[in-house]
Amino acid sequence: MVNSLNEEVKDFISQNNIFEEEGDNFSTFHPKLKSWGIPNFTAKTKKFKTNSLRYAHHKVYACTYNFDSEGRRKTFTNSETDSVGLIFGDSIAFGTGVPDDYTLASYFAKHNSNTQYYNYGFPGHGPAHMLLHVLDDNFKEEFKNKKGTLYYILRDDAIKVSNGKVDWCEDYPKVISGEYVGSFNKEEIPSQSDYLASEFTTEDYLNTVAIFESIKSELKNISKDLELQIIILPSSFCNFELIPFLQDKNIDYKNLYFTDLEFLTENRSRFLDGTFKPKAFDIISKIVTDKNSKQIDLQLPNHFTIDETVEILGLMMPSFVDYPDDDSGVICSLICKWYNKSTYINLHKKFKKYFDYKLSITDYLTDNKTLLELIQEEYVVKPSIYKKEE
User: Fold this and answer.
1) Which residues pair with 150 in a beta bridge?
2) CA-based angle 94:95:101, to the nearest 5?
3) Does residue 99 have a cis peptide bond before it, meaning omega lies within 30 degrees of 0?
4) pLDDT of the residue at 227
């Protein structure tokens, strides 16, 4: 059942994510990173959905990107600062589809006037790319004795890229047990990029976390006042299994999995390819920099029955304009894995039932105390859509 479910999810994802891009190529070859921004370059780009299952032939975005002398995406500038913030990650960290002043790095800068932010995100990049930046002599010189934070903006792709489990990883940096050993060759990587969170192994997580360990260690050689924080994005289904490994190695993180960006942005958080819009970046930057925002971690399935888990994850799954079959399928396959179920009767139906409560039933009540606490959190969902018990 789990294998067939995984194949069903992969089939939907592959048929619903068919895109075409046109415009200027803004990527140049880098001897270690493989791909990096062209210094002092301006690129115009467009992206469209083609024969996808949903929203076929819709425009995803049209945007202009500007790069600085180091090949980084230009960022909103704070004139007088005493600290730095560096954003690393893939296309979401880069800000695919949004103008320079509306990327995550730029919103961080707008909400923190005493910090200058730099955007090291780039499409397809992973934690190993971050490590290579930190090891670079020019990087070390630029941020020597600086004070601030390096953020890795993490989603499931970070685990895949760290372990060469996607088809775009050829020639990408290969790091084993925290040590850079060269590049992934063609024979090592799969022919397709479908690798669900339910298929991630302990070795995948250990290798990814080892990269963050090396980054954290190298930072101390640059400045004793530079810190590392992992930002786990909403819909990063790896969070449940990844977090214990981060905790074990004392790596700081912020888990935003239960932050419902769709509610908080009134269904304007994402483009059709899953990358984030400016309103989502605005909210994320506020949450991350708010020292009073509450950390929400759930160690599933350790403390919950399978029915409780279905209720929690079904109701708290981010809400889109239409039901996200791919996200639902990934979570259902995780639940089967956690509870060692080869089959779970009507799992999809139960999961969608709770999701529909969220969208259409204003008086939904539950005896699940954990779920009630989640519902009441300011940055999780809008409490006004639920009827409170008198």
Assistant:
1) 86, 228
2) 110
3) no
4) 98
Half-sphere exposure of 20 (CA within 13 A, CB side): 9
Q: What is the Cα–Cα distance from 122 to 90, expressed in whole angstroms?
A: 5
Predicted confidence (pLDDT) per residue in 197-247, tens digit = 999 999 999 999 999 999 999 999 999 999 999 999 988 999 999 999 999
The pair of structure tokens assigned to 377 is 């959190």
Tokens of 315: 């109701």
Nearest to 233 by CA among 256, 254, 212, 252: 256
Helix (H) or strand (E) holding 218: helix 202-222
Amino acid at 44: K
Say how far apart CA 142 and CA 9 lie, in whole Å. 45
Beta strand pairing call for 226-232 and 148-154 = parallel
* Contact partners, residue 190, CB within 8 Å, separation at least 6: 165, 166, 167
Kindly indicate the confidence band of residue 292, based on its pLDDT and cuts at 50, 70 and 90: confident
Supply 22's token pair. Answer: 């046109």
**Residues 6 or more apart whose Cβ sits within 8 Å of residue 371:** 311, 312, 315, 316
In the DSSP assignment, the letter for residue 67 is: B
| DSSP H or E run through 217 | helix 202-222
Residue 175's contacts (CB-CB under 8 Å, 6 or more residues apart) are 127, 128, 131, 162, 181, 207, 210, 211, 214
Q: Which of 259, 209, 241 has its CA nearest to residue 334?
A: 241
**Contact between 139 and 133 (Cβ < 8 Å):** yes
How many angstroms separate the CA atoms of 72 and 66, rounded?
A: 8
Q: Hey, what domains does the chain have and what are their CATH numbers?
A: 28-289 (3.40.50.1110)
Q: How far is CA 127 from the centre of its chain?
A: 12
Specify the 3-state DSSP secondary structure of 273.
coil
Q: Which helix (H) or strand (E) holds 117?
A: strand 115-119
